[in-house]
Design brief:
The protein has a single domain, classed as Tetratricopeptide repeat domain (Serine Threonine Protein Phosphatase 5, Tetratricopeptide repeat, Alpha Horseshoe). It has 113 residues and is mainly alpha-helical. The protein is 73% helix and 0% strand.
Length: 113
């Protein structure tokens, strides 16, 4: 199989997984996985990061007690597009540090703000 066809097959498999996650059981975990897929494997697609942010925020809405999901949101402040403003990132970081004082991601946001 040519490298191009292998790459296409990999992308199609990932798209099918993404579609399955979104169209079935809506859970924080599935939204987190969708966010990860969009911000890594599909980051080259138009608006992939914006879609990934939507799923990251939805994951937090569905499971607000999960601090790791809030840490994941901070990624969207670190990317060049800065989809989360400095103020929003600082607020998220402060919220994280109240629950998990040793969060390096949150400390980095506050240190670099």
């Amino acid at each position: 199989m040519s490298p191009f066809l292998f790459s296409c097959q990999f992308m199609l498999a990932n798209l099918l997984i993404y579609s399955y996650l979104i169209n079935n059981n809506e859970t924080a975990y599935y939204h987190y996985l969708a966010s990860e897929l969009l911000s890594t494997a599909f980051c080259h697609l138009p608006d992939a990061y914006a879609s990934a942010l939507y799923h990251a925020k939805r994951a937090v809405e569905l499971s607000p007690e999960d601090v790791s999901l809030k840490e994941h949101l901070l990624l969207f402040h670190d990317i060049p597009e800065k989809l989360i403003s400095k103020e929003e990132a600082k607020a998220i970081a402060q919220e994280i540090l109240k629950i998990m004082p040793n969060s390096e991601a949150a400390k980095n946001v506050l240190h670099n703000a």
